[in-house]
Amino acid sequence: VHERTGRDFVIKGKTDLKLGLKPRLVLEDLSFANADWSDTPKMLKANKFEVQLDLIPLLKGKILIKRFVLKNSEILIEKNSQGLMNYTFTTGDQREGKSQETKVNISNIVFNEFVIEECKLIYHDAKAKIKKIWDIKHIQAMATDLHSPLDLDVIINYDHLDISAKGSIGSIASLLKKEQKYPFELNAFIN
Prior knowledge:
With 191 residues, the chain is mostly beta strands. It has helices spanning 2-5, 92-95, 172-176, and strands spanning 9-11, 15-18, 24-33, 42-54, 63-79, 109-125, 130-142, 150-158, 161-169, 184-190. Strands 1, 2, 3, 4, 5, 6, 7, 8, 9 and 10 form a ten-stranded mixed β-sheet that branches. The longest helix has 5 residues, at 172-176.
């Protein structure tokens, strides 16, 4: 990870890997270093990270993430006074002066189940002097494929407001196509 990003990725807890056509990786007590210019040493801290893939779709160039789970975590998205984001990484090739550009086609990545529980998401913009904090109690999004509706269950706190929403929205494929009509049916509550 350090060679690809220039940052340390540390796992202090258990690691569990199950192999097969649907391999599953579980990591506990992990952290990912922040940009060198930041006052906050960690960009990500998590008690549990889990990912399960389905390898068969890889034959067609698709990445199917059966399950993605992040629990008891803190994620920092940060912009410094020069406008640099903390999720901009320097690869080993870039440090050696070699040019390298990596492109990822997001439409080739599909999630069946995406779960975040007990997560603090922090956005800090040093130049604009903005700091926003979202306390995510629970987010669960489920879809059978890229073209299926996405079932959502969300409970967050933002700026002392408890926000919850449950229902379904249009498919990820529709969202990526930026279709003018995007269906959603949500029951939302703000307290």
